[in-house]
Design brief:
By secondary structure, the protein is mainly α. The chain is about 80% helix and about 0% strand. Helix 3 runs antiparallel to helix 8.
């Protein structure tokens, strides 16, 4: 059991360390404040747990088996990513040339940040299919499948809260540098561009 747990947490670390839209959004929101960043993390990890729970009940198998359902989710996910990307680039454009950096919209309300993290995760069909293929590998032999899967999904989400919390803390520590108008605008531009590219890739993939 201990070796399985260690292997599971190691796999969770590799997953979290892989760059993706959630990482980009967490860093972007953390530029506004640690509170916004952390609430984005909580929203994202709520989505992780929900997909894990759906996988535990076997419902993601329906998504993987249905080309139409997966296609619809893929398009919805692409629209969400592109929407976040356009919003980010617009904020960067508004900040150009303003004395205070124009970041009045950067600090999102707590629930707005939470909803953003949750929406981005739930709109990703790959997250659903991945949860279905990832979690069953670590269910101990002979253990009840449903409780074990739900427990692993909860552990996965809690572990990533701590992992991404380090990102939020680091951005907060670097705020004196990152809050400079030019630096912050450039980060927003990069974040927006990455989100647009990820959305386009998701929309175009078969």
């Amino acid at each position: 059991m201990l070796s399985t747990l260690i292997a599971f947490l190691g796999a969770c670390t590799l997953i979290a360390a892989s760059p993706g839209p959630s990482t980009v959004l967490i860093i972007k929101r953390s530029l506004g404040s640690r509170r916004s960043g952390f609430m984005t993390v909580l929203g994202n990890e709520t989505g992780v747990f929900l997909w894990g729970a759906v996988a535990a009940f076997g419902l993601t198998a329906l998504l993987a088996a249905s080309e139409m359902a997966y296609g619809v989710m893929r398009v919805v996910g692409a629209v969400v990513l592109v929407g976040f990307g356009v919003q980010t680039l617009w904020q960067a454009r508004r900040s150009k040339g303003s004395a205070d950096g124009g970041w009045e919209g950067a600090e999102k309300g707590a629930w707005a940040s939470y909803r953003g993290g949750l929406l981005l995760n739930l709109a990703n069909p790959k997250a659903a299919v991945f949860a279905m293929s990832f979690l069953p590998q670590f269910v101990p032999e002979g253990a009840p499948h449903l409780p074990a899967m739900l427990g692993l999904a909860a552990l996965w989400a809690l572990y990533e809260v701590g992992y991404y919390g380090v990102y939020v803390w680091f951005v907060g520590r670097m705020k004196a540098v990152l809050s400079r108008t030019g630096v912050r605008r450039r980060l927003e531009q990069v974040s927006g561009g990455v989100l647009l590219l990820l959305g386009a890739r998701l929309a175009l993939e078969g």
